[in-house]
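step: validate -> pass
step: tokenize input -> pass
step: predict -> running
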Amino acid sequence: MSKRKIQDLETPALLLDLPTMESNLRKMAKFISQGKAALRPHFKNHQNVWLSKKQLEAGAIGISSAPRAHVWRSRGQRRRRMEHREIREKLPRAA
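step: predict -> pass
step: emit ->
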């Protein structure tokens, strides 16, 4: 894989420090496994299906989302909670 310069990336782009992200996921998993909290990260923060799956694998009980739910649902995500009232014509896509 060739290295690209940040300024050459199309935007918006999600840039991650993978070791830090994985460390944070492990810390989150440890905390919630102790029964101190349940976690439902908000999809709007990163808008990335791959990262949502990582959060679920680490123990999140679901992913919170707004109208973009129909996007990640079409890619295999099933657990969701709508935070905003959906527009009537969009409901079939999110169901």
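step: describe -> The radius of gyration is 15 Å.
step: cleanup -> pass
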